[in-house]
Amino acid sequence: MNFLQQSDKAEFILKLLVILNMVDAIFTLWYLNLGVAEEANPILSYYYAIHPCFFVLVKNILFSGSIYILYRRLLSHRLAPMLVTTITALYGLVIVYHLIGPHLSGVRFLGGETRLLAMNLIGF
Prior knowledge:
mainly alpha
């Protein structure tokens, strides 16, 4: 039985990835608005400079498009479970970084001058 045939598990993990992407977008917007972060992805940085809504829209289109391609093209491959699990774990680490990274970097949200580089899984 391949990963695609385990549709409940695949659907859950892919939905989790989309949720993690949204949480990443929220944290990134928060840090950018506070001035303690810079967007590392030049494409997303460009759209953030136009308007934060464009940033969220493009981030979600790029990520959801990638997830769709992954689901339609790669999940029948024998390495798919390992690939999807690895991507999910890495995105989980991005969220952990959002939660503890600023504190480890010495960022003070009220008047701190330390700048934090916002990292995105889709980034270049």
